[in-house]
Write a structure and sequence with these properties.
By secondary structure, this protein is of the alpha/beta class. The protein has nine helices and ten strands. Helix 4 packs across helix 5 and helix 7 packs antiparallel against helix 8. The longest helix is centred in the middle third of the chain and has 16 residues. The radius of gyration is 19 Å and the shape is globular. It binds adenosine monophosphate. The site of adenosine monophosphate (AMP) has 17 residues, from helix 1 and strand 4.
């Protein structure tokens, strides 16, 4: 491809919805051509997770992408095309991330994500790649990976697309029963309460810093009102730079990424909100010093 062409890239695992298409739309406004990939990446699933039943809707996905203006779709027909059965000797190991929330809950996750994103960048060679805030730890990981490993790709984060009641759009929402779907916005409502607690200086005794316990309690209190929440996997109040947990938050200096994973029945839901300085950092297009 001509070096002067800005190629946008939207990696996905398919089962596309308006959230994915919002990334394509953003790419269309900023790039000369847009490529997307559809690949359910086995290395980011833990044993017993939903790899086999992950929704696969290839034909519909390709027509949605093409209707949105995507010119190139990379959709390997089999896992072997990316991971030969003879095995791989090398992978990307974001060691520090294995100790953070999503890494503790799903130990293979970050290595799987970093490795597949690196492979896709090498294959597609995009100028700029688009990721959704919905998977905030993935966004922060990819931003760090391209910076730490000097990869020549710009990273853009796009806002989370939500259903009208606030539920973050997700391919896994199709697993929700009608009753679960009715209450599934509980996670968004709980995170909003956490964000409000961060911004509530009166609970901070005038210092502007709000302790993580206060924020976490605000999230938990809302989640506890819904009996269908069968498990709170984690509530994380972390730095936007590396997802390390914060002891306290001041919106305009530390900022915060408030994220959580819960089970509604058997369905795992994740979501997050950004507070103050974190929003500027995550959405900034300039290179940032760490
Ligand atoms: P996935 O197919 O789940 O791997 O997602 C592919 C890309 O779409 C990732 O960058 C996700 O963060 C992004 N994405 C998924 N859901 C949403 C959403 N509701 N709003 C915006 N982006 C999303």
């Amino acid at each position: 491809m001509d070096k002067n062409i800005r190629l946008g890239f939207v990696p996905t695992m398919g089962a596309l919805h308006e959230g994915h298409i919002s990334l394509v739309n953003k790419a269309m406004t900023e790039c000369d051509a847009v490529a997307s990939s559809i690949f359910v990446n086995p290395t980011q699933f833990s044993k017993g997770e939903d790899l086999d039943k992950y929704p696969r809707t290839m034909e519909k996905d390709v027509s949605m992408l093409s209707a949105a203006g995507v010119e190139f779709v990379f959709a390997p027909g089999s896992t072997d095309e990316l991971y030969p059965s003879s095995g791989s000797l090398c992978h990307v190991e974001p060691a520090a991330f294995s100790r953070i929330c999503e890494g503790v809950a799903r130990p293979e996750f970050f290595r799987g994500v970093a490795t597949i994103v690196c492979k896709l960048f090498n294959i597609v060679q995009p100028t700029v790649a688009y990721f959704g805030q919905k998977d905030i730890s993935q966004c922060i990981l990819v931003k760090r990976m391209v910076q730490d490993l000097n990869m020549p790709v710009e990273i853009r984060v796009c806002e989370t697309m939500r259903e009208v009641d606030g539920l973050a759009m997700s391919s896994r929402n199709t697993y929700l029963s009608p009753d679960e779907r009715k209450v599934a916005n509980i996670l968004y409502r709980a995170l909003c309460a956490g964000k409000a607690a961060c911004n509530n200086n009166s609970s901070a005794g005038g210092s502007g810093f709000v302790s993580r316990d206060v924020i976490s309690a605000a999230v938990t209190d809302v989640l506890k009102t819904e009996p269908m929440v069968s498990k709170i996997e984690y509530i994380s109040i972390a730095s936007h730079r590396d997802m390390k947990e914060l002891d306290s938050v001041k919106a305009d200096t530390t900022g915060a990424v408030i994220s959580s994973a819960i089970r509604l029945g058997n369905v795992r839901l994740i979501d997050n909100l950004l507070v103050g300085a974190s929003e500027n950092y995550i959405y900034s297009q300039a290179e940032q010093s760490l």
